[in-house]
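S1.2 Input.
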Amino acid sequence: MAGRYIAAVDQGTTSTRFMIFDRAGRIVGAHQLEHQQIYPQAGWVEHDPLEIWQRTQEVIRGALDQCRVPARELAAIGVTNQRETTLVWDRHTGRPYHNAVVWQCTRTKDICDMLAREGGQDRFRARVGLPLATYFSGPKIRWILDNVPGVRAAAERGDALFGTVDTWEIWWLTGGPRGGVHVTDVTNASRTMLMDLETLDWDPEILEILSIPRQMLPTIRPSSDPEVYGYTDREGPLGAAIPVCGDLGDQQAALVGQTCFSAGEAKNTYGTGCFMLLNTGTRPVPSQSGLLTTVGYKLGRSPAVYCLEGSIAVAGALVQWLRDNLRFFDFSKHIEDYARQVADNGGVYLVPAFSGLFAPYWRGDARGVIVGLTRYANKGHICRAALEATAYQTREVLEAMQKDSGVVLSSLRVDGGMVHNELLMQFQADILGVPVVRPTVAETTSLGAAYAAGLAVGFWSELEDLRRNWQVDRTWQPQMDADTRARLYRGWLKAVERTFNWVD
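S1.3 Output.
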């Protein structure tokens, strides 16, 4: 096996990065660039797919230049991505027919309502593990087919390709119009609302109901594939033929990066949104508490591993909103400085239901609120309330997870950009009443994609190699008394009720 390092393309909601790891899972080099957020109208969110590919090429070159690692030293590449975001493009030119419709976008509400008239919100849940919601890719594909001129005809004749962002990236990395491979993995496919969790293949009946031509869909492959999806194009940003053989949706990648390989192990990722996954083993567990049943990963020919997931739409995005829309501060990290200027939230709660509420409510009619305002409240209280919102939402998801699984977590492994906010991490431990553990490598999304690729080519030989790499950086112990915890949480639940029924 050639190559001393493993690399990962990590294409997220707000930025793209390329990270290079050594055998111990340490970061050797990294480069990251943001891309534009496009809001055509209230509730709609888009990205420019060509800008994302351009940023991908730039971060690959930037990371390799930074650490002076020749591309030929890479043993393999994995890809991880913002999930559910939907792209359709011309297989001959690579030109998108429309901007990417982002997972946060609510434009498909009418489609979801139409589908729910027969069978309700859980019409497909038994097969796909998901409720009918604007979050998922299937209704987004239908919207593009119905609303963008020429796309349906192109799809029916085989010229239009659908993909989530992993598919788009892998297609371009392996040559694009010059023979790029059109694949996705089981984790990303499980977020489309189109894949049967038992067969791990596209569900023909759901495709027919949604009027989606099967020929536009990618081939579903394992998350770590020794057969290799394809090789990077020598004319591309790497300038060498490197195997691309790892693919995981970002939250599942973080599960792998946190080495949650045993049933009952869980992690929470604090990024644009906030996502908790609990490993439930090799059988899907239906949720009765508003969670999602999803594929956690599939390594080669081993059986797929499933998860229960609690998805929170807005976490770090709320900090960005305070920064960009309200101009509260110039840099996101400054929110902690303002929040520390006050002793508590001053009675203020901020519920960021910008795209409705995800788990455990699934209320598309909800919208964001700030409640409890008095003349006493100031910027510091609102900043603190914004951070606390993420912790409260995590508690709601954790309680739902415990109801569904019967597993009571003794600690919570955390990762993502927000885990460097120590005020938030302490409050998270306080409001949960359990320790919160941050690993040495907090960017576990990229690491998980690298692990998937490395396992495929034998860079790491077994899961124990990865477990040995996992190290604790810091643990936050709960310091809040039970009465205060209960009182604050009651206030949060009252605030959430105020978001309901805003959209008719």
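S1.4 Remarks. The chain has a mean pLDDT of 93.
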